[in-house]
Amino acid sequence: MYTSVHTDRRDFIKKMAVLSAMTAAAGMFPGIVFAEEQERGIPADANLDWKKAPCRFCGVGCSVLIGTENGKAIAVKGDPKSPVNKGLCCVKGYHSILALYGKDRLTKPLVKKNGKYVETSMKEALDLVASKMQKTIKDHGKDAVSIYGSGQWTIPDGYVASKLFKGCIGTNNVEANARLCMATAVTGFLTSFGLDEPMGCYEDIDYADTFVLWGNNMAEMHPVLFSRLLDQRQKRGVKIIDFATRTTRTSMAADKSILFNPQSDLAVGNAICYEIINNGWMNKTFVEEHCNFSKGLTKMGYGLEDNYKFADKPETIDFEDYKTFLEDYTPEKASKISGVSVKDIKYLAAHFGDPNTKVMSFWCMGPNQHSRGTWMNNIIYNIHLLTGKISSPGNSPFSLTGQPSACGTVREVGTLTHKLPHGVVMNKEHRELAAKIWDVPVENIDPKPTYHTVEMFRALDRGDIRFMWIQVTNPMVTMPKLKRYRDGAKKEGRFIVVSDIYPTPTTDIADVILPSAMWIEREGMYGNSERRTQYFEQMVEPPGEAMSDTMQLLEVAKRMGFEKQFYYKDETHIEEIYTEYRKHHEGKKHNMAPLEVLKAQSGAMWPYVDGKSTQWRFNAKYDPACTNGKDFHFYGKKDGKAVIWQRPYEPAAEEPDAEYPYWLGTGRVVEHWHTGSMTRRIPVLHQAMPHAYVELNPGDAKRLQIRTGDMVKLTTRRGEITLPASVNERAVPAPMQVFVPFFDEKMLINEITLDSFCPISKEPDYKKCAVNIEKA
Amino acid sequence: MPIKSYLVHPQEGKKMHLANVLSEIEQCEVLPAENKEVLILVTETYSKQEEEVLKEKLDSINEVKLMALVSGFDTPKK
């Protein structure tokens, strides 16, 4: 992709025509590459400086090469040396540099005075942020201040945020938007294995025979990885099975599409386990050597009330108990709950049960944004553990992420209320290690977690939190049951700081807006879904007074009197921070690669031991941390064994009824990245998908006499919204279900969603609530 | 003055040959996909009549299996 400021209108239109076609092609052929176009338009005498960076958008972590000229990023292409994307780019990655140059970039700090935003200097704005935070702590206590970041934070951003708030100020009011998307994956990993993040890697794709996609529209959300699946099908005839609640581009490309009723994946997953055991497909040796069985509490509620608390009480059970539990999930019984035929349940189970078939499971928001999401993650692991199809090439349960550093920053640095870079605040040894590295008294680190994201915004509404600093995320689009949290943030006596690159509905609630340097306008690292940490250097200058989020935090920390802890020099601060951060993870289980390695290659996977990335954790053949003398060692658990969990089916928090007879699910589209604050400023992407819509089942649309483009009113118990209809277009929901993408800040679907969440992970369920629809 | 872009699906095995055929037409610019059987075609003409003649010519090319219009822009002549 090439862009130039020196272009006439006709050339521009021609370029738009090409880009429109490329966008359409990318939708039809995930992972399509137009290599010639990447070089085209670049002047023959151009002396472009090409440098590598991980892509700014999703969690796949594609490496891109960025061409700069005269201080401006003007070209981008996939990095052929990257083992992640092997030179491919998706439509968003291909246009990623255009997100730097939107017309309305924030370039000056803005402070709200008498209801109006007034430009000020960065120095004055940072002075104000520091003094407001100090005053709030003095008047209301340390737990009245908070920071809310994201999986787009670089590793240094999240690290200094955690150090400042948890180590120096002494509050665990640190959360990140990954709570809205990946928290369930974390609790799934922790409960089953005792350690977070996938045991396998993308290279599993090259070995697996069957891919089961659990509620995961990979063709649109992870197109580059999906193209690797399609490539394997062409080369080796692998099978792709799409198990979902609506028919999407992924379903259309799959070998088999199986639809299930919302929430009933729990029942089908258990039925697969039933089939594996009852057909003698269980890998008995593996299970006996490496697994335990447990059950937890049930009927946990849905977190709908303020100050909701839940702590699971795991109880050891034996194999026979588990087998008896599964009697409730015969294929016949699960079929009644799920709407999936007995034949299809058996078909799914047979793929896992065949000892000669290597199976890779992929999932993302379907099982994660789920009111019983931790259970669903556990059940997928149960299937892989029962068959021993785990931690070896091609046998891999793989949880995908949606943000470039949801793993690297939120999960590894630990920017969640209960987390530390190594371990959790509740653990004395973990607090001592963090305090030592941070050079703070251990008493500073509070052993009690405070608020998870939904509760943090509830606390802001109640007035328990008075100061909130929001960096690189857009909660006023993404929070469920949005109105309550927007009204809460606007209440008297609240002070909100927002660091971002463009105006958004979240900057609208800010008292101070700080312009941030974006991506390659500063230096940093991201960590992707396969435990790969990737470095990028600063390639261009940020506009105006824009400053990196890391530097904003450092400046405020110093103003608050923490110069000793934030000793880093301006010119080397990223290197110094990363070097300090690595100390938290020393050891064979999580060692991070040195910076010089990250600079020299397209990242490295932790644990990085003896100069090598670890591709398959817990497998003694590949993982130097295995020490039990056996083939596998699940060393996250004290006894070295993984846990097979007894997890039942339970209904969603709100299900369709006579008044609200349809299911409402929300999600994303290929053209836009999450809330669209960047991609809606890229003309070709915006033009390709200019606004949100409500997708209806054709039968429902016919009955209601609704056609594509007609306005449709959606009403839930939280409110109503009107959107244009989409019938038989990109995707098709099952009867009595509707789907709405959330990228459009002018059609905020989260005004009407429900803030129920998984009681274990505290991640909201954006996929299920009850709605009524009528022609507007 | 119309500028249009199409996704052109070639007959099996004819992608590069089709790319060459289209490249020789004055009003056409072609961009074959590196790894898929599809091409992007951008046409630039200066009148509706010229465009119609071109369309007829394109329709008669045997190597074209399917041609799908993606975008059409009209711009004043410089």
Structure description:
The complex is a heterodimer of chains A (776) and B (78). By secondary structure, chain A is α/β, with parallel strands linked by helices. Among the domains of chain A are: 9-101, Phosphorylase Kinase, domain 1 (2-Layer Sandwich); 110-180 and 404-567, Rossmann fold (3-Layer(aba) Sandwich); 662-753, Beta Barrel (Barwin-like endoglucanases), CATH 2.40.40.20. Chain A has 26 helices and 31 strands. Chain A has a seven-stranded mixed β-sheet, sandwiched between helices. In chain A, helix 4 crosses helix 22 and helix 10 (265-278) runs antiparallel to helix 13. Chain A starts with 8 loop residues before the first helix and ends with a strand. By secondary structure, chain B is of the alpha+beta class. Chain B has one domain. Helix content of chain B is 27%, strand content 40%. Chain B has a four-stranded antiparallel β-sheet, covered by helices on one side. The longest helix of chain B has 12 residues, at 48-59. Chain A binds chain B through residues 8-10, 13-14, 16-18, 20-22, 24-25, 28-29, 31-37, 40, 88, and chain B through 1, 3-7, 29, 31-36, 38, 40-42, 44, 68, 70-71, 73, 75, 78.
In short:
The complex is a heterodimer of chains A (776) and B (78). Chain A is α/β, with parallel strands linked by helices.
Structural class of chain B: alpha+beta
CATH class of the domain at 110-180 and 404-567 in chain A: Alpha Beta
What would the average pLDDT of chain B be, to the nearest integer?
Answer: 85
Residue-averaged pLDDT of chain A, rounded? 94
Structural shape of chain B = globular
